[in-house]
Amino acid sequence: MGLEITNQYIINAPVSRIWEVLVDEFTDVATWVSGLDASGPNPQATHIPEGAPAAGRSCVIPGLGATDERFTVFDPDNHRFGYSVDAEKLPSFVSNMENVWTLRSRGPRTTEVTQRLTADVSGPLGVIMKPMMKLQFNRLLKTIKGDLAAYAETGRVSEAKAKELAKAGR
Q1: At what angle do helices 159-167 and 123-154 cross, to 10 degrees?
Q2: Which pLDDT value is given to residue 1?
Q3: Which residues of the chain have pLDDT under 50?
Q4: Of the candidates 34, 30, 33, 56, which has an alpha carbon nearest to the alpha carbon of residue 43?
Q5: Cβ contact 152:11 at 8 Å
């Protein structure tokens, strides 16, 4: 049984800026996304797609622990990339999670962002938890959207991330 969430939105920044934030700075995502304690290169990922900044990344997410993220799609010519996601505390009934991003220019300073999150959910617990998981992932994607828009459009982190950093003393 599959779980799929697709979000599409406009950000007032050129495709090149969005690509820079999402791809060129791929391993530094915790510097601008709320709810991430840390991020960096994934030492377990070894295959670096041509032109990619790294083979993958690892993030520390409260409640999920460290993630293992690896590029699965890397197409800079079409501004499309994707990565698998696994985490220490991801429930056993969730597998094959992937997040694929597509960027399309809608003008010199406007980008249409499409984000598609998919996962396989199995077993009785998966059936029960799927609606709640969909709500949680929708909230996460909404947070990422707001954080990305703030960072790409202004060069500064969102208010939520700024508060998080201040609370952590950074």
Answers
A1: 100
A2: 80
A3: none
A4: 56
A5: yes
Q: SS3 breakdown of the chain: % helix, strand, coil, rounded to 5? A: 35, 35, 30
Closest CA to 35 of 144, 135, 132, 150: 144
Instruction: Provide CB contacts within 8 A for 158, sequence distance 6+.
Output: 32, 34, 146, 147, 149, 150, 151
Q: What is the pLDDT of residues 66-89, one digit of tens each?
A: 999 999 999 999 999 999 999 999
- What's the token pair of residue 44? 């377990």
Residue 165: count other Cβ atoms within 10 Å of its Cβ: 14
Sheet strands (E) in the chain: 2-11, 38-41, 56-61, 65-75, 80-87, 94-105, 111-121
pLDDT at position 11: 98
Pair 87, 75: CB distance under 8 Å:
no
Burial 36-53 (b: 16+ CB within 10 A, else e): beebebbeebeeebeebe
Count the residues in the chain: 170
Of the candidates 42, 24, 21, 26, the residue with the CA atom closest to the CA atom of residue 113: 21
